Amino acid sequence: MASPFRVSTLARVLVTSGLLSLVGCVAEVRSGAPGSSTGTGAAAGSGNASGSGASGGAAAGAGMGTGGSLAGSGGSSGKGTTGGSAGVAGTDAAAGPAQPGFARLTRAEYAATVRAALGLEPDLSLIPVDGRVGSYTSNAEVSPDPVHPYLLAAEDLATAVIPSELPSCSGAAAADCLAENYAAPLEQLYRRSVSDAELASATAMLSELETLGVAPEDATRAVLTGALLQPDFLFRAAPFAVDDEAKGRRVAEHLAYLLWDSPPDAALLTAARGTAADLGARLREQAARLAEDARAVPVVSRFLAQWLRVDTDLKLENPDFEASPLFRELLAFTEDALANDLPVQSLVLGTRGFVARDNVEAYGLDELASDAEIEAVTWPADSPRRGLLGEELFLDATRHPDASRRVIFRGRLIRSSFLCDDIPAPDADLLALNDEIGDRTVDTRCAGCHLMMDPIGRAFAGLDLDHEGEVLPAEIVEHPELAGTYADLPALLEAVGGSRAFADCFSRHFLSFFLEQPLDAADPVWAGELASAIQSGAGLREVLELSVEALATRSLEALPWCEGP
């Protein structure tokens, strides 16, 4: 078996220079200091012209994506953070402009972008695991990763695609070869046009390598390896730029990666072109289209699950989970919510649910009414099942083996995910004394937190098949809007789902997902606008449309710190 293609050590050092340029810009953005970043676009260097791959001159490939300047992460888009701090909605203050930022592509985004550009499935085991911003999958807050894993992945991709899918280029025909065969894939990788200067840089690098005795196949692989290490590919920048075309493209990319985990399609890019004045309206229409596409279902399902403290991305690392009834029921629920634009409030208080044929027993059912593998059901008035919390994925996640502790997890879920109440984690020393504590709502060491959770969580007991005895009413303690006693779980969820507190909280969670920002960073005016729409019956799709339109408008008010096309 032939050894894998690897560029030389010197080339590896120099080929990463584009990424190192971006690190400086990211640091400036995150520290709040304005500035700019200049890429290195390294010229060919000396190196070993023999062995497993290209010479040190292959480092010129690093300059291909940036051509000597970072160009605002090469015009890649992203989900910028929002200025302002969390607050109570309803203020007369103007919403602040969205602020620039950077995020490394997630594993799913990396795979989809490579697939679109090269038609290959990359080996994601080489790619660093995704980070989280709050509950949500995002690499906006991770430090730039060591380049080496991306280098190995790039070399493997270059080996797989050259010469089987893309030709080697060499000699006098190199310029035409690169323009005809590589310009389109690179534009897919960078999510922008590739300039003549960048193609000329690649051509010069190929010539340099040939002068050093590098075989055309390895030299061409070095070009592609360098391109696959560019920040233009690996990072998404916030949707800000110095001209309307670039701004529209970046907002469009933000939308595509947000809903599809992939680059924008042709229709979305077409809609992004034009003046910035009506960009929001054009992209709002596209948001509706993308949300109705099947590719949006798993991404929105991930948001809903992570909102309710079930990290499906982690669960999907187990290959059995994707085919499990719990996950298939979630996908069916999400697909229905998007297709029918069901009110966000129905996520809490709705009577419509989904049950898989191989999971009927978990719901206390004997059989489904149809022959479908997953069936929509309407829960009767006397059933405690409502909304997403009626789905077994979320109930099972809170079904602690010690039944007495289930009230904690369920009460905390309502408080944290539906009402955004901050309940601190228990002290480690106190946890060690758990067996000595009786009623947690009475013991003074625990009561402060458990009075907020346990009286809520006890209303869920009727959803456990192993529960015996009566189900106690729910009680919300110390809440300005919802304090009181509720006869049963449906009554509790009806009150919570219709409250302003829930609308405000969901809006903050949605913006945390949408903008890849901490929950407490939500602009209070933006969140307030979404909350008002939710209280008026807005569905998931409408909330998305409003958010995209607002992002397009607010991005016009911000100046980029790392400028570029």
Write the layout of secondary structure elements.
Blueprint (H helix, E strand, L loop, with lengths): L8 H7 L1 H15 L30 H5 L4 H4 L6 E2 L15 E2 L2 E3 L2 H12 L13 E2 L2 E2 L10 H14 L12 H8 L1 H8 L5 H16 L4 H12 L3 H4 E3 L6 H17 L5 H7 L6 H14 L3 H12 L4 H4 L9 H15 L6 H4 L2 E5 L17 E5 L13 H6 L8 H13 L9 H5 L14 H11 L16 E3 L7 E3 L2 H9 L2 H16 L8 H12 L4 H16 L10
Antiparallel strand pairs: 1-2, 3-6, 4-5, 7-8, 9-10
Helix pairs in contact: 5-8, 6-10, 7-9, 9-10, 12-13, 12-14, 12-26, 13-14, 14-26, 15-17, 20-22, 24-25, 25-26
Structural class: mainly alpha
Largest sheet: 2 strands, antiparallel
How much helix, percentage-wise, in residues? 40-55%
Question: What general form does the structure show?
Answer: elongated
Strand order of the largest sheet: 1-2
Proportion in β-strands: 5-15%
Radius of gyration, taken over Cα atoms and rounded to an integer in Å: 26 Å
Name the poorly predicted regions.
9-92, 559-565
Span of the ends, CA to CA: 43 Å
Number of helices: 26
Number of strands: 10
Arithmetic mean pLDDT: 82
What's the short story on this structure?
The chain has helices at residues 9-15, 17-31, 62-66, 71-74, 107-118, 148-161, 174-181, 183-190, 196-211, 216-227, 231-234, 244-260, 266-272, 279-292, 296-307, 312-315, 325-339, 346-349, 392-397, 406-418, 428-432, 447-457, 489-497, 500-515, 524-535, 540-555; strands at 81-82, 98-99, 102-104, 132-133, 136-137, 235-237, 352-356, 374-378, 474-476, 484-486.
